[in-house]
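Review form for a predicted model. The reviewer records the input and the model, then writes brief findings.
Reviewer: anonymous (R2)
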Amino acid sequence: MWLLKDSCWVLSYKTAGMLMIIPTIAVAFYLTYKLRRSTSELLHNLAVCCWIIANSIWMTGEFYANDGYRMYAALFFGLGLLLVAYYYAIAQHKKTQE
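Model under review:
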């Protein structure tokens, strides 16, 4: 779904790209929910959700706001990176000590 959404973005199919945001995010959160029992899966999938949201904000900004939403997108990209960094710096370290 993410690739289809991004393909619409690259091809400037505004309506299709915007419509693909909802199912793409929905599937990402569904998978995150289904795999929530594993800390690794949870944090990595939450990061993917953040990146898809960031990507969607960026696309919306390019389509309708003269690329004016890039800073908002950067916040979600950063949050995704923090989630992955947390896992590799702290959560995984705790797991190996047990």
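Findings: The mean pLDDT is 94.
Further findings: Residues 2-97 form one domain.
Recommendation: see findings above.
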